[in-house]
Structures are given as structure tokens and as C-alpha cells.
Amino acid sequence: xxxxxxxxxxxxxxxxxxxxxxxxxxxxxxxxxxxxxxxxxxxxxxxxxxxxxxxxxxxxxxxxxxxxxxxxxxxxxxxxxxxxxxxxxxxxxxxxxxxxxxxxxxxxxxxxxxxxxxxxxxxxxxxxxxxxxxxxxxxxxxxxxxxxxxxxxxxxxxxxxxxxxxxxxxxxxxx
Length: 175
Description:
Strand order of the largest sheet: 1-2-3-4
Helix content: 40-55%
Largest sheet: 4 strands, parallel
Number of strands: 4
Distance between the termini: 44 Å
Number of helices: 7
Structural class: alpha/beta
Order of helices and strands: HEHEHEHHHEH
Strand content: 5-15%
């Protein structure tokens, strides 16, 4: 595991202690206030790398999948298998994430520019994200259906334009 991965696991162990009301260091009392949910918040992890996916079974309640449906099925299966192998009860929450830009060409163009700026550090990833962005009602419906067919419990739609009308368009096309 990489140093950042080890650091994240250490931080998660510390947070579990905080959420359980346990002292986090010798001589210190518990940190408060207590969380609303016993054991702390539900943690969902995203990512594609094996260490990130393995972290879900150790620390998480589920997975946010950033991959398109063609890759998501294998990732969902891996997360389910690791969950079972870790002896976790039930199954992980599986959340799919779709980049969308429903609307006129100006909305789509703005969304594409925003996505490119966001992923400027990784041009290849930006190109993949642009290709996968759903911009028509048909693409959005088909992508949501594909994720649900793969067993996603929820599908999250990420809008990359500040066109507020996208919310109504999405509500109408998914009603």
C-alpha cells in the first residue's frame, strides 16, 4: 500500500475511535459531540485501483463507481466479493455516477469545458470522461438503466454546467 493509502487507513481508524466515543490518544478523553448515527457516518468510497476498492470492505458502507457501465459490472462484482470475503453482513451499497449535461448545445459546451478544466491534470482521463458524458435524454435513460441492470442501488447524476434548468430536465426525463 502506498504512503497515502496507509495514512488514509490510519485516519479512518482514528475517526472510528472518535465516532465510538473512545479516546484517540493516551491521557485524552473522548472527542465530541457524538455522531447522530451510532458508529459514525456511512462512508462511501470511490476509485478504480485495487487498494481503494479493498478499503470499502474494511471501512465503508459502499462504493461510488466512476466507471462507465461497460467497466462497472466487474468493479461491482469485485467490491461484492471483497465484502463477502471480509465477513461483512449484507452487501455494500453500490452507487453509480454519471456525468450528464441535458439541454441545449450551450449547456453541453459549458459542461464539456468544465469537465476538461476539472481533469486538466489527466488529459487521458478527461477524454474518457468526455466520451462517457450523457447529454441526451436517450443516453441518460440508457445509462441509468444499464447501471441498474448491473445491480446499482442508486445512480448519481453529476451536472457539469451551472444551467439550473438541468434539474427540471432530468426530473422530467427520468419520471
